[in-house]
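Data availability (excerpt). The following record was deposited with the supplementary files.
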Amino acid sequence: MNGATDSLRTLNELESEVIALFVRMADVLNLPRSVGELYGILFISTDPLCLDDCRLRLNISKGSTSQGLKILRSFGAIRTVYIPGDRKDYYVAETSLRKIASGFASEQIQPHVASGADRIDRIRALLDRHVGEEREDLLEKIDLLENWQRRAGKTLPLVLKLIGGS
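Predicted structure:
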């Protein structure tokens, strides 16, 4: 994007449809709408865009734009590119599904899987103090949770390998 007039142009139908696709994906992944919008505009753009370009094209606040770009960077879904003579950060969308999925898993899924193991340990400790007829039933359910936890830890790396390259 060069100049304010380019930044202010409205989205064309193609851009709007691509952005809508990524907004829906963001919704499914329980991410803010702005994350989908930002990835969509960066994905469909043929030029790197800076924060202000994204903000103006999408008509979203500077805070939402900044936060959304931060989230996308943390996943590895976008990368910063250097534009000679310009001090702003410019962004392009990462197009390798493996890199994006791996980044998302590392940032969003792995921490939950890891904290789940700690929580199951706390649940077991609470059950050790529990007395009553239902103790055996509860123990079976906690064993089931632990099994799910273990399987999630083993399955996630396999799923990422299956996703493969770009």
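Summary of structural features: Confidence is low (pLDDT under 50) at residues 1-5.
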